[in-house]
Amino acid sequence: MRPRTSLLALVAVVSGTTAPRMGAQNAPVALQHRATEVAANTVGSGTMASGLQPALTAAADPPRAPWWAPVASGVVPGAGQFALRQQRSVAYLVAEAFLVVQYFAARRDGNRERDAYRALAMNVARQPFGGTQPGTWDYYERLEQFLESGAYDRVPGGALDPETDPATYNGFRWQLARETYWLNPNTAPAVGSSEYQRALDFYQRNAVGEAFRWSWRDAQLQQDVYVQTIRGANRSYQRAVNMLGVVAVNHLASLIDAYVSVRIRHFGGAGVGVGGYAVDGVHAGYQPTSAYSGNWQAGVRLAPR
């Protein structure tokens, strides 16, 4: 116990206490009761009345700011803001859910359109040649650009005779091979020469074989539908990629927001600054404008240091 300190506190309280609206005869009694209450509270406390200590301690406690809040926001947008008890945690979470749903919807549309143009190619352009094996992405783009693939070997049996019609895909590749490796693309060198063999090797690597041969001849309408379908698939897949990009931005924005909030709560606005200004707060959110797009809004409130 520290009786001197308690006594000083008692004197200070008594000397600063007044009794308004009371007669002079009642003032000493009021002071005596007030002194008794303060003395009872200060006994054993040392320097502060125990009845006031909880309120002062609660006022001195800083707002909750766990160090792991930015990490949580980086993993699940809005989790860090929830730990910091910020209402905008809902905005981050809603934005994440919206973007993920849009991503899967775009992937679903792209896969459906991909199956549609592959079926159209097999049932129309490839059907006369019996081709059923799925091709690569580049292969289906070639069907969009060329009316026919052309033959791989114009004269079956014996040495390979490349397609010569440049309007076909294989003929175009053979023309490119001649222009690349022959001194004169219109004059063939000896078949056994290195020039001829290099051009032939190029053709064999890039030409379409008989198993993937196609022709849209007399099926122009179906080719137009094919072109529109493959372009629709491209747009859907691109939209899916865009959604993933915005998802990444949402994670990053939530992480930075939580980091700045933690810094502000630990060190005050002066702990994070830009130029001559201190960060006073952060607000961010994603505002959808349609089923496929939206606006990401973020801002920082600054105050002079």
What does this structure look like?
- It is elongated and about 85 Å long.
- It is mainly alpha-helical.
- The protein contains ten helices and three strands, in the order H-H-H-H-H-H-H-H-H-H-E-E-E.
- Strands 1-2-3 form a three-stranded antiparallel sheet.
- A hairpin with a 2-residue loop joins strand 1 and strand 2 (277-288).
- Residues 1-60 have low confidence and may be disordered.
- The protein has three domains: 3-60, no CATH class; 72-86 and 243-304, no CATH class; 106-237, no CATH class.
- It has helices at residues 3-15, 27-42, 53-60, 69-75, 79-83, 89-125, 137-145, 169-181, 194-206, 220-267; strands at residues 273-274, 277-288, 294-304.
- This is DUF5683 domain-containing protein.
List strands and helices in order, with pairings.
Blueprint: H1 3-15, H2 27-42, H3 53-60, H4 69-75, H5 79-83, H6 89-125, H7 137-145, H8 169-181, H9 194-206, H10 220-267, E1 273-274, E2 277-288, E3 294-304
Antiparallel strand pairs: 1-2, 2-3
Please provide a brief summary of the model.
The chain has 305 residues and is mainly alpha-helical.
Top keywords for this entry?
single chain; disordered N terminus; elongated; three-stranded antiparallel sheet; mainly alpha; 10 helices; 3 strands; 305 residues; 55% helix
